[in-house]
Amino acid sequence: MSTDRVDKGWQRKGLKDYSTEAIVGTLGHYGVTVSEADFRQLSEKQYPAGIAESWMPKWKGTGQFAPFPYAAAGELWKRWLSGRLAPYELSESLAQLMGALGQLLQGVQQAPVASSFERMNEVRKRVPVNDKGEPDTGFMQEALRVFDERAARAFDDLAEMLSKAGHPEHADAFADLEEFLLPDRRGISKPIIRASRGERDAALEDLQKAASDSSRTPISRVLAVDGLLHLKANDKVAVVGRPLLDEAERTQDWHLALDLVARLEHAYKQLGDRTALEALAKDRARVEKAHDEAHPGHRRHQHQH
Questions:
Q1: Cα dihedral 53→55→58→63 (10° resolution)
Q2: Where is the composition biased (Basic and acidic residues) (predicted)?
Q3: What ranges make up the beta strands (E) of 112-169?
Q4: Torsion angle of alpha carbons 252, 254, 256, 260, nearest 10°?
């Protein structure tokens, strides 16, 4: 084991200037023995944060060294797997892009939007994808988990805000990125941009098609319904939501059914349709009962819009 070690200033300085031997030596000193071969093997199934988490049960570092495995895994990934994108590289480029676009929305004309998009597009090319061309789920989970709820809301709203603020090209580019990073949003983010430009009817038609498309994942179809709700197309929600609820019950997807009941309830309230609300109350009771029977002891989520 190497006697080289990282000093206490690592959090302030970062790890880039420390030798690999010092990083590995520090891991070993506090209970985690790792070689390049070990690390490469771990990387076949995990990304840096996942690797660090697998080390934590053995980790004896405290104080300034308590979080060291996370930084070490990220740095070793960069050195030993330099050809493979790390999730944090996507996190960083996305945060930079969102920051630049946020500046633009605040009126900063010199915001580094072009260079941020350029960096993001280079990173995007290296994102690991499955056979459908969709980003690897584990990779995306690790890349996005650093964003808090506020940042997630900003991400969700950004394309539409850019469109409404008169930046159509940036809005399109960001919506395209959004649909790539989160495949369940494909065909959902872009119609909302179209609606903001006055192409409401076409946008609603696209969202209705997405909600009715049985080849989509349940969450994707719910997101399409949410898109209709967002555009206050409550009548369309009622049209697509009802058959979708029937389908969810048929396939016994009780979580999807609960999500749809909540959204239909919102739409019917907005429409002032008391008859539909009364009928829906019976649906809710039936679905909740079926859910509780299917998942005994499973505390039901508040499926609300």
A1: -70
A2: 284-296
A3: none
A4: 110
